[in-house]
């Protein structure tokens, strides 16, 4: 559920995963092509809870992209984070793994689409003749 192989090189899979996170509204915190690791976080929503204090919710996401021969493997992990704080300074936090398969399936469909677009654009630019004329 959390990992999928794609018929592309690591760089394309990495760039596609990065752009999908951004398209889904995540803020990229760290991305390193060499290690293949991406960390991202959704915007935090704040809610005032009467007699409790402030409630803050966000989702953290990580991706690990690796080359496996002619294919690339992308592993995703989403974690819902809930934090509360009250007027007396007490804080409580809870991280819960997101286990809904549709969340992962949706992300992988979007990554596959991004890979397709990148691959099609790379093939088209490699095949198209130069638009500049010699001597200009």
Termini distance? Answer: 53 Å
Strand content: 35-45%
Structural class: alpha+beta
Rounded to an integer in angstroms, the radius of gyration calculated over CA atoms is 20 Å
* Average predicted confidence as pLDDT: 90
Determine and state the CATH class: Alpha Beta
Number of strands: 7
Which second-level CATH architecture applies? Answer: 2-Layer Sandwich
Count of runs of 4 or more consecutive helical residues:
2
Number of domains: 1
State the share of residues found in helices, binned by percent. Answer: 25-40%
- Which stretches are low in confidence, meaning pLDDT under 50 for 5 or more residues running? 130-136
Bulk shape: elongated
Overview features:
about 140 residues, alpha+beta, TATA-Binding Protein, 7-stranded antiparallel β-sheet, about 30% helix, disordered C terminus
Structure, explained:
The relative contact order is 0.20. The chain is of the alpha+beta class and 136 residues long. The chain contains two helices and seven strands; from the N terminus they run E-H-E-E-E-E-E-E-H. It is elongated, with a radius of gyration of 20 Å. It has one domain: Kinase associated domain 1, KA1 (TATA-Binding Protein, 2-Layer Sandwich), CATH 3.30.310. Helix 1 crosses helix 2.
SSE blueprint:
Elements: E1 3-6, H1 10-23, E2 27-32, E3 37-41, E4 45-49, E5 53-68, E6 71-85, E7 91-97, H2 101-127
Antiparallel strand pairs: 1-6, 2-3, 3-5, 4-5, 5-6, 6-7
Helix pairs in contact: 1-2
